[in-house]
Specification:
Strand 9, helix 5 and strand 10 form a beta-alpha-beta unit. The radius of gyration is 24 Å and the shape is globular. It has three domains: 90 residues, 3-Layer(aba) Sandwich (Udp-n-acetylmuramoylalanyl-d-glutamate--2,6- Diaminopimelate Ligase, Chain: A, domain 1); 213 residues, Mur-like, catalytic domain (UDP-N-acetylmuramoyl-L-alanine:D-glutamate ligase); 141 residues, Alpha-Beta Complex (Protein-Tyrosine Phosphatase, Chain A). The chain has 16 helices and 22 strands. The two termini are 43 Å apart. The model has no long low-confidence stretch (mean pLDDT 94). It is an alpha/beta fold.
């Protein structure tokens, strides 16, 4: 974590010290309830709260100092506290992180994309860890607050940090990449997430390509070669001097191409085209989309000089963040694929394709929840998912949520005439769906559970585990 005298912290964030300039700051927090002795407390102002109201409590718990916005009166309770006055506390936090990043002798890998950001971040960190001391974004700390906090957690002995960059609006990736200044930037893909805010997939591609704004001179941009919108968008991007652009995917024209791909419910195998060192690369995670993510990880590792055998070992020991095609056994022995972290049309189709390619199961179930933040076309997009499901891809479809009724309605058309037993069921009550599922799933079945974060589809998975 950052360890600096408070006067150095003030200089790094553009602030002015009052009361005490001799304290040593060890770490930064925005959470007064979890403050540790010696940390700098940063009071963030939100829509429904003002962190300044909790600064005195943070100092009482051992914080070595606090930022304070100049337009706020300092209360008597902080009259003797070490305070750094700044114009805006959020901006000061970001500036502190950006300047601290510049002081560190490390490499930064930035990862963005509509789907697969977290998985790719985990893969990159895994394949680099055999050669370097690596830190990565934890949880969902991938926004304008989480990314600077992650940077400020870094010890000066870290060699590489892998930073996930999330967004929902134009300009957000631009901010994050200028703070992080990546040496390698990865765009996993362009999907349909945040269509409400960005208007179109072309808008999403434009927003993701903002990552090049902070890419360092001589750096590497890795982007999905199967996405024409990225190929078109990069033509007008302003790249720093010496930046190289490489593509990855399944398109034969990409620099990094996977072939001979085989997938089961818990793993994947592939060859890297034209590279004898990467034959039968094994991943402990299912899905061709994860093979694509692995290609990006390989490319990033090779850029940093990691040998092939170290990369292979990194994949072998890979541990992914939870609820991303996570294989789990139900209490009765059925295979459950917990993909409940989030959902958008591109990701749901990829999950359906994964299920379609798996064999050896009595029945294959799709349990699909609403996809949120899709904008005016949300009903049509849910219907398109239903039309994408056929009896060749799954045996039974269960949906949860008001929007997913459109998924069920279109799926029912695909299943018409496929048998006397009804194969598509729509629910707006999660408990009813769960009870119905538990009464019908047998040990030889496969169940995929997927939906947007707000639908909390993991509750269905947990019920399957407990039953």
């Amino acid at each position: 974590m950052i360890k600096r005298p408070i006067h150095d912290i003030a200089a790094l964030c553009g602030g002015t010290i009052i009361n005490n300039g001799d304290r040593l700051i060890a770490g930064v927090t925005i959470n007064s309830r979890a403050v540790a002795p010696g940390q700098l407390f940063v009071p963030i102002i939100g829509e429904r709260f003002d962190g300044h109201d909790f600064a005195a409590d943070a100092i009482a718990k051992g914080a070595a100092g606090t930022l304070w916005q100049r337009d706020k009166a300092v209360p008597d309770a902080l009259a003797d506290a070490p305070i750094i006055l700044v114009d805006d506390t959020t901006t000061a936090l970001q500036l502190l992180a950006a300047n601290y990043r510049d002081e560190l002798g490390l490499k930064v890998v930035g990862v963005t994309g509509s789907n697969g950001k977290t998985t790719t971040k985990d893969m990159v960190a895994a394949v680099l860890s055999g050669l370097f001391r690596v830190h990565k974004t934890e949880g969902n700390l991938n926004n304008h607050l989480g990314l600077p906090l992650t940077v400020l957690e870094l010890d000066e002995q870290i060699d590489v940090v892998v930073l996930e960059m999330g967004m929902s609006e134009f300009g957000e990736i631009d901010l994050l990449t200028r703070l992080a200044k990546p040496d390698i930037a990865i765009i996993t893909n362009i999907g349909d997430a945040h269509m409400l805010q960005l208007g179109s997939r072309a808008g999403i591609a434009k927003a993701k390509l903002e990552i090049v704004a902070g890419l360092r001179s001589g750096g590497l941009l890795l982007m999905n070669g199967d996405e024409p919108l990225l190929a078109e968008g990069i033509k007008s991007a302003q790249l720093a001097q010496g930046v190289e652009v490489q593509t990855f995917g399944f398109n034969a024209g990409s620099r990094w191409v996977a072939e001979q791909v085989t997938v089961d419910a818990t793993s994947s195998l592939f060859d890297l085209k034209g590279d004898a060192e990467f034959k039968r690369v094994a991943l402990p995670v299912a899905g061709t989309h994860n093979v694509s993510n692995a290609l990006a990880a390989i490319a990033a590792a090779k850029k940093l000089g990691v040998p092939a055998e170290v990369i292979r070992e990194g994949f072998r020991t890979l541990k992914l963040t939870g609820m991303r095609i996570e294989p789990i056994r139900a209490a009765n022995g059925a295979m459950v694929l917990n993909d409940a972290y989030n959902a958008n049309p591109t990701a749901v189709r990829a999950a359906i394709d994964l299920v379609a390619g798996l064999t050896g199961y009595n029945r294959k179930w799709l349990v699909l929840g609403d996809m949120l933040e899709l904008g005016p076309q949300e009903e049509a997009m849910h219907g398109e998912i239903g039309a994408y499901v056929t009896p060749a891809k799954a045996d039974v479809v269960l949906t949860y949520g008001k929007l997913s009724r459109h998924t069920a309605a279109e799926a029912a058309k695909q299943f018409a005439g496929s048998g006397t037993e009804e194969k598509v069921h729509a629910f707006e009550d999660k408990a009813q769906l769960t009870a119905w599922l538990l009464s019908h799933v047998v040990p030889e079945d496969l169940v995929l559970v997927k939906g947007s974060r707000g639908m909390r589809m993991e509750e269905i998975v947990h019920a399957l585990q407990r039953a």
